[in-house]
Amino acid sequence: MDDIAVALDPNTVSYPRWRLALHWIRELLPPNAKILDVGCFTGEFVRCLAQEGYFAFGIDLNQAAIGRAYGIPVDRAFFFWYKGERFPFENQTFDGVALMDVLEHVAREDAIVNEVRRVLKKGGIVICSVPNQGRYAWMDPDNLKFSFPQTHKLFYTVLGQRQIYSRKYQKDSLLFGNFARAGSQRHRHYSLAQLESLWGANFSTLRVHRGGGLGFLIGYLGNKICFRICRRRLRAFSKMLAKSFLRDDGDDAYNLQVLMRKIS
Length: 264
Fold this sequence. Notes:
Shape: globular
Low-confidence stretches: 1-13, 171-183
CATH architecture of the domain at 3-133 and 188-214 and 249-262: 3-Layer(aba) Sandwich
Strand content: 15-25%
Order of helices and strands: HHEHEHEEHEHHHHEHHE
CATH superfamily of the domain at 3-133 and 188-214 and 249-262: Vaccinia Virus protein VP39
Strand order of the largest sheet: 3-2-1-4-5-7-6
Oligomer: single chain
């Protein structure tokens, strides 16, 4: 099954980027390999890897999310609350590491990369998914609150969620939201050259996928709005996301997913 067919297959994990990552892992790592998912949240991808026959480990800063992951026990799936310092593993523990939509969120990306280098075996693989520094980077839905604060506030107002807005973002002295108060920061977007520079010369790039253009952004924003209104995502928007991700959109892509190998 090729990469595109895998990413469309709903019988694997739910998220197209995870499906593509799983396909790459199946090709390169044998069963019983040890894989770490950095930023695993509630552990869906970790459980999927475990069910594929891997020893799968997940870490996340969100203690509540890790608690939920613990609540769904699966053989070979292990979860750890990461407190933001050193990963709780010995040097050269893992055959593979996944960072799916993580680096753009962290305050110190170099610290995360250094920890991955430390716990990954020589010859091991890294799968890294980040927002692409492309034509539509300025339309990142999670950065709209910085670029268009008035529209962001109006969105909450129209949905009748002014109290939520005030609690999350606003101080009395500010007309619009104080996003630093909420611990928010802009999503970073990366070019392939920037990502390769960040990982350094001891990693070689094996595969690159740039997917998700304007259709991806429309589907992503549509699902965020629907979730705010009715606490659910629409299947039509989710299918738009999946299909858009499959196309190699080059500079128009919103997502950049890279497979690398540690060579030294």
